[in-house]
C-alpha cells in the first residue's frame, strides 16, 4: 500500500461496500387545465344574505374546491364543487322561505 495516499480504496471504509445515493425527486403539481367552478361568490352571498350556517359550510367547500384545483386533484375538486353548490341551493331555499314567511307575517298584521 502506497503511503503517499492515505486511502487507496475508493470505498468509504476499507472492506465495506459503498452507498449509492439517489438524486432527489421533486414532484410538482400543476393547476387543472379545465377547472371546475368553485362557487365562491355564491357561497359568500348565501353566507351573508340567506342562511349563515349553511353559508359557512358552503364557503369551506368552495375554498376546498379552489385548493384542489390548484393542487391538480380533478375528482376532489368536482366533489367539493358539487357539495358547495348543493349547500348554496339549500341555503338559498331556506333563506327565501324565511323571507316569504316574514313578509307574509307582516302583511297579516
From TrEMBL:
One of its GO terms (cellular component) is membrane. It is found in: Membrane. The chain crosses the membrane at residues 40-63, 84-104. The keyword NAD does not apply. Keywords: Membrane, Transmembrane, Transmembrane helix. It comes from the Eukaryota. Pfam families: CD225. Its main location: membrane. Belongs to the CD225/Dispanin family. This is Synapse differentiation-inducing gene protein 1-like. It comes from Carassius auratus.
Amino acid at each position: 500500500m502506497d503511503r503517499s495516499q492515505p486511502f487507496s480504496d475508493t470505498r468509504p471504509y476499507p472492506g465495506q461496500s459503498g452507498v449509492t445515493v439517489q438524486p432527489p425527486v421533486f414532484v410538482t403539481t400543476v393547476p387543472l387545465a379545465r377547472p371546475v367552478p368553485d362557487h365562491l361568490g355564491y357561497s359568500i352571498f348565501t353566507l351573508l344574505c340567506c342562511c349563515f350556517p349553511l353559508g359557512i359550510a358552503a364557503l369551506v367547500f368552495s375554498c376546498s374546491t379552489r385548493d384542489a384545483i390548484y393542487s391538480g386533484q380533478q375528482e376532489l375538486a368536482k366533489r367539493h364543487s358539487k357539495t358547495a353548490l348543493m349547500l348554496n341551493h339549500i341555503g338559498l331555499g331556506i333563506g327565501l322561505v324565511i323571507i316569504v314567511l316574514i313578509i307574509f307575517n307582516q302583511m297579516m298584521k
